Amino acid sequence: MFTPGLVSISFRKYTPEQIIEQAKAAGLCSIEWGSDVHVPPDNPARAKEIMQRTTDAGLSTAAYGSYYRLGQGADFEPYVETAAILQAPYIRVWAGTNKSWQYRPEERAALVEESRKIGDMAKQAGITVTFEYHSDTLTDDYHSALDLMAQINHPHVRMYWQPSQFHTFSYNLDGAKAMAPYTKNIHVFHWDAFGRYPLEQGRSVWLDYLSVFRSFNQNYGALLEFMHDDRLESLIPTAKVLRELIDETESAH
């Protein structure tokens, strides 16, 4: 039910080739390729090359991690085209640029309409738009994210999920339960408001998070995002913890 993978922006200073090699060595299955450094939306030749290297390594593309933001008037088509080259099932986008409570109803309605539009564009390529679950966007709170999903009401617009380092474990667990039906990929890390820590130290909370998602009997990508020390060498031991968490969650069900 969980496919272990990596978010490429975890290692912006490394090349896609280095990331592919280490992801394979770590026993991961997929990579979310970021649009800002590794696979820009204006270089189809490079996207084709990276896709071939990914496939040759026995890996798949978990998603195209774009930095397209609602409300900025950007052209979404290049992201769809690049995602299609990468054979990405999802394009990660950002639900605006402000805190959810700062949007007036008419502003929110405009972003909902834009979401439907890009959802239609993605659908034509067999791809689904997925919103980053993140602060300073319409999905910075799970109540707002739920409302957004209901307002958009589009089969090709869905969500990511990740715990917030600025909220309690209880809040994050409630958020996971609320967002699980809409979630396609989960960003996995162990942080709090004061710093980043090895995933090993977050075993208990992540077993609880993954158990929530497992209970919905859907398929999710479980994608490592940012090592605690930003070192590529830390991917292998961190991926080992992730695979163990997945195995333990699956065996409990």
Write a concise synopsis of the structure shown:
The protein has 253 residues and is an alpha/beta fold. The chain has helices at 16-25, 44-56, 77-86, 105-124, 142-152, 169-179, 203-214, 235-251, and strands spanning 2-7, 30-34, 60-69, 90-94, 128-131, 157-161, 183-188, 190-192, 195-197, 220-224. It has a single domain (2-251), classed as Alpha-Beta Barrel (TIM Barrel).
Radius of gyration: 17 Å
- CATH fold topology: TIM Barrel
Task: Tell me the strand percentage band.
Answer: 15-25%
SS content category? alpha/beta
- Compute the separation of the termini in Å: 11 Å
CATH class: Alpha Beta
Outline:
globular
